[in-house]
């Protein structure tokens, strides 16, 4: 054997080592919530959990304090460390008896807040006022942030579908983080000098129902049938879609002219050509579609040979905004939701036939753009043999008047479904220690505000039970939005605000942050999130930390008759009531029993009361600041506004 020179040996050995597969990293023992830079809740027993081999004994250590656990038959373990004061950074270690170990570092103990809701909670710092300056000054090692990515599931999950990570506040981590959540913590730290952990889990456009568990929705009532359908879908999506299609068809028959069944294989009525290329129907140049928020039917035939029709097929219909109910040869195939997201469905074997096949799609759009978008190359039927039939052209449509209303929604939808967001974005957090919850949501529920009080109360009770603690809730009341109304008129936004106010008033561990003066006329997402954060921080200082300040400006206490006048009294008034820009407060209404009986009333200040002129017309209620975008000028010396309300007028006190 000829020896190799040393100069040749080293590269050869490096080559051999490179060819040896690296040992797989051991699976983590700690749940994904426990990572470097995490914040754990102070002054309360600290739950820690994870996974190990079934029956494995573990020791969990934090700052020299230990707890023990044993993994159950499924490999799950949970330990509880004793409460600790604010401090850190510490190391957290999980070690098994057999020698496996996982350690994380830079762990702080402080106050942890869950920030949730829809788009106004989701709005990032980079879209808030003075964003460049705020981002540049955002570095703060005592604020740590974690964002939960959008995801849904028909059943509760133990782990997130996409990775999560804790990080210290800095320009790179705060730029895309929730502005209201970050500004809240930043303002709160001016008074409460402890580390803050911020968990952001929100989704633009989401209703409240998908944030609630199955049990919570059943407790509220009225959701059993849809939840039963969701349970079927979770076990068998095909069966769930067939049930949904049947419910959809039943709804259509009860609302459409007799005999109307556009999804059938035989075309009915007048079907017009869809302008090409496929795009937002508001851009077609068709007058009745230019501002149409509602439904449109789409229809197309596809001719297949015998081989193509023999097996499964993949139906790609491109991007759709926002809901589609899709039929193939008269059979309901699928129902899904998305803002311009692409749809691809599997057509089961036996559904297709040699010769002509019919694809019918009803598209519902409730806001902004709507329809089938393509692109053309993404619209086709694909078959197992590699062949395909293009579907990009020759679609026809039928207009559906908005007077038809909206069809039933599939309970497995994301932002408009039931419990799906809770299952994927909240359930995996359990039972992480929290100080409280910030909730900024309601815009998507303004269409049925009458149900919102019960739903919000149900959500608060639900999350408290799930996290195992009487969590404080800080609720952001909806801001003004839209055009001021010159007359007293109904308002779904005002009704939603009243539902929020009443839910908080009935809850001893909730507070309201009034923002009726922070909105912008035509901006659904007002950028002044600094003020929102400051008001949330003030509410926390009152409710959570016991500071002797009002949670959010003057709060109505009662209204009663005093002769022909009505006295409206307020609590939590700092100094006395103040009318900005006028000698008198404006925005008060007196109402009789009917919804149409409200009229504006003259008012004047009297210390911590407002005196209304009753006039000669009967009145049983007082409304204030009622409307989508009311003009309100009643404040107190703190500079905070009195919030909107509706309250019954009581008899004069004896």
Question: Uncertain spans, ≥5 residues at pLDDT below 50?
Answer: 1-20
What is the fold-level CATH name, i.e. the topology of the domain at 261-404? Answer: Jelly Rolls
Assigned CATH superfamily of the domain at 261-404: Galactose-binding domain-like
Structural category: alpha+beta
Share of residues in strands: 25-35%
Number of helices, where a helix is a run of at least 4 consecutive DSSP H or I residues: 13
Give the biggest beta sheet.
11 strands, mixed
What is the gyration radius calculated from CA atoms?
29 Å
Query: Please, what is the average pLDDT?
Result: 94
Helix content: 10-25%
Morphology: globular
CA(first)-CA(last) distance:
116 Å
Total strands: the figure is 31
**Which class of the domain at 261-404 in CATH terms?**
Mainly Beta
CATH architectural name of the domain at 261-404: Sandwich
List its salient traits.
single chain; 654 residues; alpha+beta; Immunoglobulin-like; eleven-stranded mixed sheet; eight-stranded antiparallel sheet; 31% strand; globular; disordered N terminus
What does this structure look like?
It is a single chain. With 654 residues, the protein is α+β, with helices and mostly antiparallel strands. The chain has 13 helices and 31 strands. Helix 5 packs across helix 13 (529-543) and helix 6 (214-220) runs antiparallel to helix 11 (452-467). The chain is globular and about 85 Å long.
In summary, what is this structure?
This protein is an alpha+beta fold and 654 residues long. 20% of the residues lie in helices and 31% in strands.
